[in-house]
Write a structure and sequence with these properties.
four-stranded antiparallel sheet, three-stranded antiparallel sheet, mainly beta, about 100 residues, 1 helix, Immunoglobulin-like
């Protein structure tokens, strides 16, 4: 899963705290996109059941941003898809 993180001049992978369905997961990758945003990838926690789950992101020095709902192991029919960059931007201050 990839999520766009708000503009920051410096950010380290170790300082991210992704959370999926209430479970903390490590950020695997972090890289800038060249336009002032950062992208991170992480795996879903093992044993996550089928259905809708909340994903949240914060840094070690911020609060969680708004939750993004993701569908896990669900049929594509009837689901609405959106580009992750548009719906999962986390605004961070400080850090």
């Amino acid at each position: 899963m990839q999520i766009a993180v708000s503009p920051l001049r410096s950010l380290r992978r170790e300082n991210l705290r992704p959370e999926v369905a209430g479970f903390g997961v490590p950020a695997l990758v972090l890289h800038p996109d060249g336009e002032g945003y950062w992208f991170t990838s992480f795996r879903l926690p093992p044993g996550l059941r089928q259905g809708w789950h909340d994903v949240r992101l914060r840094t070690v020095s911020s609060q969680f941003g708004n939750a993004l709902r993701i569908a896990v192991d669900m049929a594509r029919e009837g689901l609405t898809f959106a580009r992750m960059k548009q719906i999962s931007v986390l605004e961070l201050e400080g850090a």
